[in-house]
UniProtKB/TrEMBL annotation:
The keyword Cell wall biogenesis/degradation applies. Belongs to the peptidase S11 family. This is D-alanyl-D-alanine carboxypeptidase (Penicillin-binding protein 5/6). It holds the Pfam family Peptidase_S11. GO terms for molecular function: serine-type D-Ala-D-Ala carboxypeptidase activity.
């Protein structure tokens, strides 16, 4: 009826134009007829005025870019269709270019970056959790799932693998239960977003499942990624390509019950690659997302030479690999444009972060350097270059470029000018990446960073192959169970070593393409 009434009204307007032979008016009204009979929703437009956090220009609609005079700045890629995007220097916080940076949009599973940044410091990785039926019932229909089973136990480490690699909403709800429930978790996520300066974000669902009023922005998602990358565990999970995950408990040939494992693979296609898409050189995370309402979203971090960039792209036209291709194009542009553009804004430091004194002024628990984990007093063994549950580090994304670990493993996302890490002078040594606290420092000189040489695969194991050991050992228990899911609705093996699988297609409301 609505279309019929619109057609009648439009025809009444069109008739005088046709009789008087006014082609321009007739053409204009014919467009109105087309709009009236079409049920296709109009493309949404950004607000005319948005938040000015990080700079006035970031609150304006449309593309914001400022080429430096005479520097020969490259033009932006023509292929970018995302409704909102941002390109920022992860170290200085400078925003090199942006489009609708503060437009509140559905974030899908990229909101899991905020979930992880909020909850990661709270629980010991070895803590064991038994999954309840109630937790699984809270997972929305069509969600991506890692395959948790009611009544079986998983370590916190297992659950975080499920969140980062498979974008498992079941793992999110298990961790939320550990945290005191969904309501408490959502409240803490919103509070943490506020401390980070993410004023466009309102969390309704901790897993990113579509909900009324559940929004974030390209700017805010970039803040979440930047804060999360301050945490060693966050960096390691985000960079892991594949891992072993606990499966069923079954009787072996000896009659004893044993917990099997199956392989899970990261859903970040710039990390793993996919048919028609090569892994992006220098990529190290962070998070992708997809729902039928939000479409695709993605935040990625990559290093080229001494420069580390963060890019977020939200809601591109088309589906499939579009968001990855557009992110890669924006990263390429950002690396080429380095030093050739003026900043159009900045990523603000979190509440209580140091203003350049190398000292955090906020003593609240969990808020060191914007929520970063407290750093140990001395050097520790680098862990970001290994595959979870496998030996020799085979299969980890950071094998792409060894020098990337200089920034990632050392927590060098401390923004030296605007957000320095605790105890840092914020300088760079010649020929080295950004300096950071002594996470990867050598015993002789804990303040200096070492180039990490990736290790070859173990004898007899092809590069990238996963070991059957590890992953489920801590969570192993006697009990009943059935084959766990791999997050794509397929049955997963209950034990042994599964061969690596190609990237799986998206679930309907999975949160991850």
């Amino acid at each position: 009826m609505r279309s019929a009434r619109g057609l009648t009204a439009a025809t009444a307007l069109l008739l005088p134009c046709l009789l008087t032979g006014t082609p321009t008016a007739a053409h204009a009204v014919s467009d109105a007829v087309s709009d009236a009979v079409s049920d296709k929703p109009k493309e949404p437009s950004p607000p005319s005025r948005m938040s000015a956090v990080g700079g006035e220009r970031l609150g304006l609609p449309g593309v914001q870019i400022e080429p430096r005079a005479g520097a020969g700045a490259p033009g932006l890629p023509d292929s970018i269709t995302s409704r909102a995007w941002i390109v920022a220097d992860a170290e200085t916080g400078d925003v090199l270019a942006a489009k609708n940076a503060h437009w509140p949009l559905a974030p899908a599973s990229t909101i899991k970056m905020l979930f992880a940044d909020t909850l990661l410091p709270k629980f010991d990785k070895d803590r064991v959790h038994r999954v309840s039926r109630e937790e699984l019932l809270r997972v929305g229909p069509g969600s991506s799932m890692v395959g948790l089973k009611e009544g079986l136990t998983y370590t916190v480490d297992d659950l975080w693998k499920g969140v980062f690699l498979r974008s498992g909403n079941d793992a999110v709800h298990a961790l939320a239960e550990l945290n005191g429930g969904v309501d408490k978790t959502v409240r803490e996520m919103n509070e943490h977003a506020g401390r980070l300066g993410a004023t466009d974000t309102h969390v309704v669902s901790p897993d990113g499942y579509d909900a009324e009023g559940h929004v974030s922005s390209a700017y805010d998602l970039t803040l979440f990624a930047r804060s999360g990358m301050q945490k060693p565990d966050f960096r390691e999970y985000a960079a892991t390509v594949r891992a072993r995950f606990p499966g069923d408990v079954e009787k072996g040939k000896d009659g004893k019950k044993k917990r099997g494992t199956f392989e899970i693979q990261n859903t970040n296609r710039l990390l793993t690659g996919a048919p028609g898409l090569e892994p992006y050189e220098g990529i190290a995370g962070v998070k992708n997302g997809y729902t039928t309402n939000a479409g695709s979203t993605f935040t990625g971090v990559a290093q080229r030479g001494d420069r580390v960039l963060l890019v977020t792209a939200m809601h591109p036209e088309g589906g499939g690999l579009s968001v990855y291709k557009e992110t890669a194009a924006l990263l390429d542009w950002g690396f080429e444009a380095a030093g050739k553009t003026e900043p159009v804004g900045e990523l603000v430091p979190p509440e209580g972060a140091s203003d350049g004194l190398g000292k955090n002024t906020d003593d609240r628990p969990g808020n060191q350097a914007g929520g970063a984990d407290p750093q140990p007093a001395g050097p520790t063994t680098p862990t970001a270059s290994r595959t979870h549950g496998a030996s020799d580090g085979a299969g980890t994304a950071l094998m792409i470029v060894a020098s990337l670990l200089v920034a990632l493993g050392a927590g060098a996302y401390g923004v030296h000018r605007h957000w320095p890490l605790p105890g840092m002078a914020g300088t760079r040594g010649p020929g080295r990446g950004p300096q950071g606290p002594a996470v990867l420092g050598s015993p002789e000189n804990p303040g200096a960073l070492e180039r990490i040489v990736t290790r070859p695969p173990a004898p007899g194991r092809p590069e990238g192959a996963a070991s059957a050991s590890g992953g489920a050992g801590k969570a192993s228990e006697n009990g009943d169970g059935h084959g766990g899911g791999d997050g794509d609705g397929k049955a997963a093996g209950s034990g042994g070593t599964a061969p690596p699988e190609p990237p799986a297609p998206p679930a309907k409301d999975a949160g991850t393409p």
